[in-house]
C-alpha cells in the first residue's frame, strides 16, 4: 500500500458510486409543485374534459380503421388510471413541501412574536422607571406653586416688617 492510497482518518471518505440515478430533490420538488398546482386548476379540468370528450367522439364516431380504443374504452381507463397514479403522489409531495414551508414560517413568526413581547416588556419597564423618576422631579406647576407660596410668605414678612417699623 503506497502513501497516496493510504486512507486518512482525519478526512471524510469520498462518496461511493451508486447504481441509483442521482437527482436533485429540490428541483424534483419544485417541478412536482408546478404540476400539482396545475392539476388543481379549472384549466386542467377543462382540458381534461376536452381530451376525454374528443377521445370518446373519435373512438365512437371516427372512421372504423382509425379508431384505437373501441367501446368499453379500456385504453382511456388505463390512461386515466395512470394519470391519477402519478397525480396523487405529486400532490402529496407538494403538500409536504408546503407543510415544511408553513412550519418554517410559523417558527419565524413565533420568534418574532417573542422578540416583540420582550421589546414591549422592556419598554413597559422603561416607562415605569420614567414615571417613578418623574415623581421625584420638580415639574413646572410644582415650581410655580412653590414660588407663589414663597412670594406670599415674602409679602407677609414685608407687610409684618412694615408694621413693626411703623410702631
TrEMBL record:
InterPro entries: DUF1003. It comes from the Bacteria. Keywords: Membrane, Transmembrane, Transmembrane helix. The chain crosses the membrane at residues 44-61, 73-93. Residues 1-13 have a biased composition (Basic and acidic residues). It holds the Pfam family DUF1003. Residues 1-21 are annotated as: Disordered. This is DUF1003 domain-containing protein.
